[in-house]
Amino acid sequence: MSLIKQNAQPKLVIPQTGAPANRLVSTRSGGKMVKDYWDRLFSARERGATVVWYNGAALNPIFQAAGIEWCHGEAFGARLAAMHLEGPAQRMGEEYGYNQELCSYARTTLGCAVLTQKEAAKYVNAGDGADVPDIPSQEVLASKLPPPDLFVNAYAGCSTGQQWDEISYRLFNKELPFFKVSYPLLWGNKADAGYLRGEEWMEASRYVAAQIHKLIEFLEFHTGRPFDWDALRESMHYIKKAAQLRLDALALCKATPTPAVFWDWVASIAPINFLPGNQDLVDYFAGVKAEIEQRVIDGVAALPGERYRLAFDGIMNWNKVGWLANQFADHDAAVICGRYTHSSFWNEPHLIDEDDPILGMAQHYLLCPFNHSTKTLGELLLRDCETYGIDGVVFHATRTCRSASNGQMVMAKMAQARGIQTMVLEGDVADASFYKDEILMSRLEAMLETIDVRRRNF
């Protein structure tokens, strides 16, 4: 039950401007859950577990029900970047021959694959009982991934992602089983096409669902075990509950000033994206929602002195999260919503039928925010701008992820036509070398000044 009394109109107190931002405390438990997940994965070989490397869609409930361990390449690349430990893997990828302009997620994970093989070779060459040379300290985390037994590719809306696991497959000498799920782009050209509607949507949904069934057959064959359908239903039961709690908490941020910001939701991406579907996941998002509800009651703002309400479009910049959060806070700009947090990761839980979850899962995989037409992306952005009372949109033009940047100029024009100011930030998902901090600051200040001028004139 909600902690907010029906029809209550709590008054949020805005302390003096310049006070530090109030980040959610409840998200810290998510960090421990993520660390525990990776630590368990690192021990998979010692436990004799089967390991799948995959990228793209959240197929982890399928792997969980199949009784195998899963490694999400993008997630590990993001983790390294967020910890500022991406350098060794990226350098190794470049030394191996992968161009710096390649998706930095892919380049990081491919570099990890090379380091993983390098570490494994040390043990093989040393022989039983021999001392194994130490790994350089900066390479330790990047080389910890257990070698895969299987590859699964499930990428929507990104041509690089669709080839990523094929390249990994070659790195492991084309000797491991490999399954690819193909996702059609939702072009939105038919007369009845639209978000979650139209014949194109239903045809694509059925097409992907059929492939998920084939994936399950593939896993049954290579594990030698029947698929546990009850385990899948149970996992999706928990994921659906967690996803709904997350949506409810997002909706609370319509309050002015907002009780939580985009950077808090960034901290919650990993749990909803690839952690196991279980009661711990539900408890985590219940805790996040409860903290936000209590903030509304107590009048606690995420950003004391909030003057501007912004949206962030594009994929996250993992090695700059803290820096960006501080810069926006210093300018009294509350980044409230974003495509990456609000239009991704089980964001339409009503689609999930817990008794027969495959179709709803397939539909969520199609909802990758880079898999829509620009028209649909623009409409979703404008919807969020209206919902959260947005003054301006920050477009993150990601240098090595073209799929994330496609259509942003068109979307910017759509926002500007509604009187919403925009700016473009050039950066990257996991390679900090593409940043120019001073350019961000000058463009942000220019946009905020324009918002002030518009307010005075209207």
At a glance:
One of its GO terms (molecular function) is metal ion binding. The chain contains 18 helices and eight strands.
Please write out the topology.
Elements: H1 28-42, E1 51-56, H2 60-66, E2 69-72, H3 73-82, H4 87-96, H5 104-126, E3 150-154, H6 159-171, E4 178-180, H7 199-223, H8 229-252, H9 262-266, H10 269-274, H11 279-298, E5 308-313, H12 321-330, E6 333-338, H13 339-342, H14 358-366, H15 374-388, E7 392-398, H16 402-405, H17 408-417, E8 421-427, H18 437-457
Parallel strand pairs: 1-2, 1-3, 3-4, 5-6, 5-7, 7-8
Helix pairs in contact: 2-8, 3-5, 4-5, 5-6, 7-14, 8-11, 15-17
What does this structure look like?
This is Benzoyl-CoA reductase/2-hydroxyglutaryl-CoA dehydratase subunit BcrC/BadD/HgdB. Belongs to the FldB/FldC dehydratase alpha/beta subunit family. Keywords: Iron, Iron-sulfur, Metal-binding. InterPro entries: FldB/FldC_alpha/beta (IPR010327). It comes from Sphingopyxis italica. The chain is α/β, with parallel strands linked by helices and 458 residues long. The protein has one domain (28-457). Helices cover 50% and strands 10% of the residues. The chain is built from 18 helices and eight strands. It has helices spanning 28-42, 60-66, 73-82, 87-96, 104-126, 159-171, 199-223, 229-252, 262-266, 269-274, 279-298, 321-330, 339-342, 358-366, 374-388, 402-405, 408-417, 437-457; strands spanning 51-56, 69-72, 150-154, 178-180, 308-313, 333-338, 392-398, 421-427. It has a four-stranded parallel β-sheet, with helices on both faces. A four-stranded parallel β-sheet has the order 6-5-7-8, with helices on both faces. The longest helix is centred in the middle third of the chain and has 25 residues, at 199-223. The chain is globular and about 70 Å long.
